[in-house]
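Reagents: none. Just compute today. Serine protease.
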Amino acid sequence: MKMRDPCQEREQKTWHYRKNRTTHIGFSRRRSGAGQSPRLLMEKPRRIAQNVIPFPDLCSALLLLVALLTTAVARADTLDPSTLAKVRAATFEVVMAKPVHDPLTYAKPLPLDLLPYQERNDKFYSVGTAFAIGHNRYVTAGHVIALALHSLWGPPALRDGSGHVYAIDSIESYASDRDFVVFSLANNPSTAPLEANTHPVLNQPIYAVGDALGEGIVVRDGLYTSDTPEDQDGRWKWIRFSAAASPGNSGGPLLDKSGKVIGVVLAKSPNENLNYALPIAELLNAPKNQGVFNVRNAYGLPIMDTQVTGTYSTSFSLPLSLADFITKLEQVHDAHFQAQRDALLKQEAPNLFPNGAGAERILHAVAPLNIVPELIVRTQDGSWHGSVQKGSAFPLPDGAQVSTGHAGAVIFFHVRRPDHLAATSYYDKPKLLMDTMLATGFSTRAIGTEKINITSMGEPAQTIRHLDAWGRPWRIDIWPIPFGNTYAITTSLAVPDGYVVIFNYAAAPDKQTRIGDLETITDFVSVAYSGTLRQWQEYLSNQALLPASLKDAKLDVNYGSTFAYASNHIKLAFTSKVQKIAPDSTLRLGFAFFKNQSHPTLDVADVRVKPQDGGPDRINVRRVIQPAEDMSEQSKQEWQKYALAKHPYDGVAYVDNDVASIAKVLKPTHERSDVLYSAFLGVEGNQSADVMKTKLDQIVSGLQINDTDY
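Predicted 3D structure written out:
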């Protein structure tokens, strides 16, 4: 067993203790006893630390010494009390009202008593910091105000130290690249604004002011260490500073030693303890009454590792009311990502499946029979293949089952509906689908140290119908999760035994972008359709659910007597003398790509019928196409067995793993030699070779192949 390093553990505890002290103390205060010796300066912190965590060994003593020296340095420079009072009055929390109604249902009452008092009783979420820079003119970070995009929380507002909340009236200036927004309040508290210093000096003490971690306005000291050009084209320089910054500091003022604003705190460095602020001069010199959306970023889809990087730039007139500004920003934000998606698909069009040489492997592959979907993805060598990592299967009451899988970040579900529910009671009932998925316990809400299962999300707030490139009708349902300002999105495809689902969470600002991504991904999903014969008959009777390839499909069954299936390319009929035919017998269809002169089509290329789910007995008809040149030697050798009717496709019975098997190769009606079909019969246990051949002949006599569209 790996032993824990006790020195490391104490170091972690010490760090958390110091972090919590910094978070909770509020404004820094001037140190008393300025004339004391360095030893005495360390005495009080040392005694406090010893009261919290004992340090009996040398390792701990060294950690304590470092902590005390750091404390002494950090508190060497402070703002005078009158300046602190002015800063406190001019600095506000940015808050958003918590949702009043929760549409979710939980496995048990939420143990809200586990939350801290402030978090439990506050009617608002604290999301950032703002400060006054003029008469009824306030500033925060642009990304703080952008939290309102498609938000499930109340609109952003300001809250002062006494708890009074001020509604934002209008937006006067905004720039996404410089990450700031200037606005006015509906009821101005007549706060004295902070003065600005537009020419700060390097290597001087500074103070970062903000609502650190949502637990009150704090002041942290450090140094103005450097300037660094912004990444895109160096149009301005960011201020780099060493004062600590935490989530919630965004939008707060960065002050010089006299309390004047030199910048707006915006970002934390990912690799070092140097953080970023926008120089206040950049904000003051920005165009008035104008909104600027200028974003350069990389965009990609999970079907390939290629990305596009581009700049989307537009501007719009201000002022606007807060509501109108958010609507405008939603439109601009969503249009940006739509443009990036379009640019990526256009750039990759010549080699985007099913186009290009890299698609040949899938176009020449046999139809997969997986009921948990695969995602067709492009690998680094440019070839496309099906990808899925199967997860768990969750048996549920009344025959229902949820099976999971994923391809990278794309999460798949296969949901088998409960036996007692008829198709008319299940399809197009998204609440039932989501409730079945939630029964696995995959979605929880964390309250303190507990995770409470979400058992229902109610009815979706929005539904979108989408037809993919292969004529499959998808349903996209969006559920709000108000406590997290998040949406759950199911992209579901009805199949005979239930649904296959792509599942995703989207942060509120990303809602529309994620929907567009999911619509694109549906073109790259490969899945077989499966169900009992009874389920198939119900499914085929509902034309609205059917993919294009099954619109004209027929299934005629007389239980205990005859089976007849027909679709565009395969017709299969047999009697109960060949295999049992019952309501719980199963039919599974695999889909492959059929080339034609204009564009490949997705159609049935594998038909498998079993007397019951599970067990080795089955009848199988499969389409096989000659492998492409760059496919594996194994696939080429297998093709030769088909082409030359060699074992196991020679019509001779054999036994494999206690299953009697026999298969025969069939040629379609056209003259091409690169497409073949096979008919297969498997029966558990030892069977007479003559009986197996007779049954196979009966299968072949009831089989018709039409592959002239190839």
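The radius of gyration is 33 Å.
Action item: order primers for follow-up constructs.
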